[in-house]
Design brief:
Helices cover 85% and strands 0% of the residues. The protein is an all-alpha fold and 39 residues long.
């Protein structure tokens, strides 16, 4: 995702790092919830 953003925007800024961080956090929380309910 970082490569794609960097290619389209010409570099990475604090905003793009923040967006990547939020996306990764959301995915990890969803994975944890799925794992918890499967056990």
């Amino acid at each position: 995702a970082a490569r794609r953003m960097s290619g389209k925007l010409g570099g990475l800024t604090g905003d793009t790092y923040g967006a990547l961080n939020e996306g990764i956090e959301t995915v990890l929380l969803l994975v944890l919830v799925i794992i918890q309910y499967r056990l």
